[in-house]
Design brief:
alpha/beta, Rossmann fold, about 45% helix, globular
Length: about 210
């Protein structure tokens, strides 16, 4: 079930809505831990980060994360909180654009790295990264963003490990088109068993992502 290349064209309405949901979540999540004064290190993971911007220059999840950290830069050094951001993109060409986009943003906002931000860039398969990342997630308060293009990594072995953690919030987005088209297929049900009869009681246009 190959997915379409979201970065070969401008973000559509559904993608922008999804990005706004995650950005608003990050907006509330970051100060919750920064302002507590007792948390000295937090992590934000974007495992399917993309290129940073779409073809029209609209910010993707990595830039939106950095922007929300920037909005808290007055508080971060005062509270002594170190913020780690973990950006991964598997496709090499997109990874190069991702790194370029983020480094340009940081160059334009040098106060971020001076204030306690460290960005970790990875160009790897999610399945290979997860064992490494879950050890960090288990130790530190973490916000995890999972927005894969398709359903390859939709599996209980990832969800259950994340659910076991005590200070982790994670958002998982899956295009409604995948479960609308393939929800009754065995390969899908083995990972996520959805009552398709109930799901299809609502018009497709009202189902964006979950």
């Amino acid at each position: 079930m190959p997915g379409k290349d979201l970065h070969s064209q401008p973000f559509d309405e559904g993608t922008i809505t999804k990005l706004k949901i995650f950005e608003n979540y990050a907006k509330e999540w970051i100060p919750t831990f920064v302002m507590s004064g007792s948390v000295k290190e937090i992590w934000i993971f974007d495992f399917f980060a993309g290129t940073g911007y779409d073809l029209n220059g609209v910010a993707g999840s990595p830039i939106r994360i950095l922007q929300q950290i920037k909005n808290q830069i007055g508080n971060i050094p005062k509270k002594g909180t170190k913020i780690n951001v973990y950006f991964n993109e598997f496709e090499k060409e997109k990874y190069n654009l991702l790194e370029e986009s983020c480094k340009q943003f940081l160059s334009n906002n040098p106060e971020l790295e001076r204030g306690g931000l460290e960005v970790h860039y990875r160009n790897a398969d999610f399945a290979e990264l997860f064992p490494e990342a879950i050890e960090i997630i288990q130790e530190y308060p973490s916000l995890v963003y999972l927005d894969q293009n398709g359903m390859k990594f939709l599996s209980d072995k990832y969800f259950l490990e994340l659910e076991k953690t005590k200070t982790t919030d994670f958002l998982f987005f899956l295009s409604s088109s995948y479960f609308w088209r393939f929800g009754n297929e065995k390969a899908f049900k083995d990972n996520l068993n959805i009552d398709m009869n109930k799901a299809k009681q609502n018009p497709y246009k009202y189902i964006r992502a979950f």
